[in-house]
């Protein structure tokens, strides 16, 4: 086998009727994604949620999307939020991702400020997109929330990656 190439296993094919939730989740897990924390302001204070369902959509107008699960206890708050911020996490922010996956109030230890729309934001991340909610689309057990980006910021560093149910780092030496 040539140097630097990994052996891949043969594909396992399955039909979705009847539903094959575990196999479907495992197949989706083969796609590596970045990890984000989405924040919004509420009457009870700042709220956050870890999400790996983030994507760019359009340059003109500047649109991004993320897809929260309707089953989340935080879903309705984010679905009603007029503004939100998406923070792209760095490789050393695994604990931030895990904390916001467990609790929407996991802001302890973060340098928190508030943007012009009143959304809680933290500057220590690889990139941040401050958004107005542009559209929300029904998408099965999730919703697609499109954000119109009002401002953005970015820095340098390694991204936090999620694949096959685990956090990892990008190896640019491959």
Structure description:
The protein is mainly beta and 174 residues long. The chain has one domain (34-161): Pnp Oxidase, Chain A (Roll). It contains three helices and twelve strands, in the order αβββββαβαββββββ. The chain has helices at residues 21-28, 75-80, 94-102, and strands at residues 33-34, 36-42, 45-51, 54-58, 63-66, 83-88, 112-114, 120-122, 127-139, 142-154, 160-163, 166-169. The strands form three sheets. It has a seven-stranded antiparallel beta sheet. Strands 1-11-12 form a three-stranded antiparallel beta sheet, with no helix packed on it. A two-stranded antiparallel ribbon has the order 7-8. Strand 11 (160-163) and strand 12 (166-169) form a beta hairpin. The longest helix is centred in the middle third of the chain and has 9 residues, at 94-102. The chain is globular, with a radius of gyration of 17 Å. The mean pLDDT is 91.
- The percent of residues in helical segments reads 10-25%
Q: What is the approximate shape? A: globular
How would you state the average pLDDT, rounded?
91
State the end-to-end CA separation. Answer: 15 Å
Structural class: mainly beta
What percent of residues are in strands? 35-45%
Rg:
17 Å
Strand order of the largest sheet: 3-2-6-9-10-5-4
User: What is the string of helix and strand elements?
Assistant: HEEEEEHEHEEEEEE
Uncertain regions: pLDDT < 50 for 5+ in a row?
none
Number of helices: 3
Assigned CATH superfamily? Electron Transport, Fmn-binding Protein, Chain A
Number of domains: 1
| Major pleated sheet | 7 strands, antiparallel
CATH class: Mainly Beta
For the secondary structure, the number of strands is 12
């Amino acid at each position: 086998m040539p140097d630097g190439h990994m052996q891949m296993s043969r594909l396992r094919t399955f039909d979705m009727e009847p539903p094959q939730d575990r196999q479907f989740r495992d197949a989706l897990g083969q796609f590596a994604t970045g990890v984000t924390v989405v924040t919004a302001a509420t009457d009870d204070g700042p709220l956050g949620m870890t999400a790996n369902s983030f994507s760019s959509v359009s340059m003109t107008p500047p649109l991004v999307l993320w897809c929260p699960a309707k089953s989340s206890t935080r879903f309705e708050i984010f679905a009603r939020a007029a503004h939100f911020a998406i923070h792209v996490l760095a490789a050393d922010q695994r604990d931030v991702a895990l904390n916001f996956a467990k609790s929407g109030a996991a802001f302890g230890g973060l340098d928190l400020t508030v943007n012009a729309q009143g959304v809680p934001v933290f500057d220590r991340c690889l990139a941040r997109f401050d958004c107005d909610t542009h559209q929300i689309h029904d998408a099965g057990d999730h919703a697609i929330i499109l954000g119109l980006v009002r401002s953005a910021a970015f820095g340098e560093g390694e991204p936090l990656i999620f694949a096959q149910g685990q956090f990892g780092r990008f190896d640019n030496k491959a």
